[in-house]
């Protein structure tokens, strides 16, 4: 079954085409549409076994962008399918499912209405995600669509971990609580890591660290999300590229009063001007921070130490919450590629039973590997995440 997987952002569309079977999937093509709505848009199409194709032209909206993707997929030179009739389903990443969606689901009018009702608490992501659904209705009418939510995996978190100690009325009126994100990735790498380490996923204590420009850590207890570092929004938890993570709320109200900032300005400051960018005034990209770190830049050294240290704090917290840990997994752009991050987080955890193998960790980038000694009580692994495969699998299982 050929499935198109879409991840629509406000001005971009990431996509993959996967031929799904019962137990596996074969990638046929992937690519990205960028700069939607600007004077000049870009399409980069990468078919497996063929030359990449690029197109540069105005792309006024998501529907136009998806039409260009479908044209590329069926093109005689760089296409991977003979006709659009081969696309049997479309799977969409949706950032926020609120309390409505504990699992992926086939799109209907009720699903679209609920996604729309969450625009207020996910204004940067859900509108674009829904735009993808509506665009497919126009260009591939009648093809089944499935929505896969970043928040679904975290719907098993108990109230003691998802509630905030705020007046209960705000939960009753506005559903203010922890939701968590990156759930598709956390679920995938926890399962893959357990298999790699020879553990029973449904009877293991696993800590997954999805670390990139955005990042989160999740405690996975007996196959279910038990706690996670992101909260009501993706702002909470770790130090990130531009997000501040954990911070005393009074520090924010103090800054707002002193600077005469509006709520919207404070929100933008915490989400877009903080993190390692705010600490260094250099960059939000950890590769740039690494270079400045190696050159001895004091603020870069502080920023990277904070970035790494916050991950370690959550690993320790979640080990305490679960009464131990069997496996620690690293994934994401930084988690998969930074040996320094993995070594720094695991150093000093010998008291927990972690015997980190520095030689095994050396030079590991974007692959699946055990990074702990054979005698280590707690296993450590790096797993390359594959959220698109999870979306395709859920879509296949629901549509077939």
Question: How does this structure look, described?
Answer:
The chain is an alpha/beta fold and 400 residues long. 38% of the residues lie in helices and 20% in strands. The chain is built from 15 helices and 14 strands. It starts with a strand and ends with a helix. A hairpin with a 5-residue loop joins strand 4 (41-47) and strand 5 (53-57). The protein is globular. It has helices spanning 62-74, 109-117, 126-139, 159-162, 168-174, 183-197, 249-259, 263-272, 275-280, 286-294, 298-322, 332-337, 339-346, 358-361, 387-399, and strands at 2-8, 13-20, 25-34, 41-47, 53-57, 87-94, 105-106, 145-149, 205-211, 215-221, 224-228, 327-331, 369-370, 379-382. Strands 5-4-3-2-1-6-8-7 form an 8-stranded mixed sheet, sandwiched between helices. Strands 11-10-9-12-14-13 form a 6-stranded mixed sheet, sandwiched between helices. Helix 1 (62-74) packs across helix 3.
């Amino acid at each position: 079954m050929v499935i198109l997987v879409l991840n629509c952002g406000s001005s971009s569309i990431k996509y993959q085409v996967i031929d799904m079977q019962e137990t596996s999937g074969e990638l046929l093509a992937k690519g990205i549409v960028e700069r939607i709505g600007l004077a000049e848009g870009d399409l980069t199409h990468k078919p497996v076994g063929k030359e990449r194709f690029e197109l540069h032209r105005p792309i006024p909206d998501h529907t136009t962008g998806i039409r260009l993707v479908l044209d590329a997929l069926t093109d005689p030179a760089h296409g991977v399918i003979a006709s659009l009739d081969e696309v049997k389903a479309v799977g969409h990443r949706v950032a926020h499912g609120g309390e409505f969606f504990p699992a992926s689901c086939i799109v209907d009018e009720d699903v679209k209405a609920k996604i729309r009702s969450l625009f207020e608490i996910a204004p940067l992501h859900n509108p674009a995600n829904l735009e993808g659904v509506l665009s497919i209705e126009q260009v591939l009418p009648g093809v089944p669509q499935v929505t896969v939510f970043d928040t679904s995996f975290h719907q098993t978190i108990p109230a003691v971990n998802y509630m905030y100690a705020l007046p209960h009325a705000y939960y009753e009126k506005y559903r203010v609580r922890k939701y968590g994100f990156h759930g598709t990735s956390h679920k995938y790498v926890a399962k893959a890591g357990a298999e790699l380490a020879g553990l029973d996923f449904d009877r293991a204590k696993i800590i997954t660290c999805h670390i990139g420009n955005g990042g989160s850590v999740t405690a996975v207890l007996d196959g279910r999300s038990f706690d996670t570092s992101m909260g009501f929004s993706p702002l909470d938890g770790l130090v990130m590229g531009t997000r501040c993570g954990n911070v005393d709320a009074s520090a924010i109200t103090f800054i707002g009063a002193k600077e005469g900032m509006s709520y919207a300005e404070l929100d933008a400051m915490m989400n877009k001007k903080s993190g390692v960018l705010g600490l260094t005034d250099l960059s939000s990209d950890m590769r740039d921070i690494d270079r400045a770190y190696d050159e001895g830049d004091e603020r870069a050294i502080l920023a990277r130490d904070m970035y790494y240290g916050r991950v370690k704090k959550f690993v320790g917290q979640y080990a305490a919450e679960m009464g131990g840990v069997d496996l620690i997994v690293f994934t994401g752009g930084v988690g998969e590629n930074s040996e320094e991050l993995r070594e720094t987080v695991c150093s000093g955890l010998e008291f927990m039973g972690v015997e980190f193998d520095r030689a095994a960790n050396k030079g590991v980038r974007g692959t699946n590997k055990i990074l702990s000694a054979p005698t280590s009580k707690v296993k450590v692994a790096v797993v390359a995440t594959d959220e698109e495969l999870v979306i395709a699998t859920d879509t296949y299982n629901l549509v077939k």
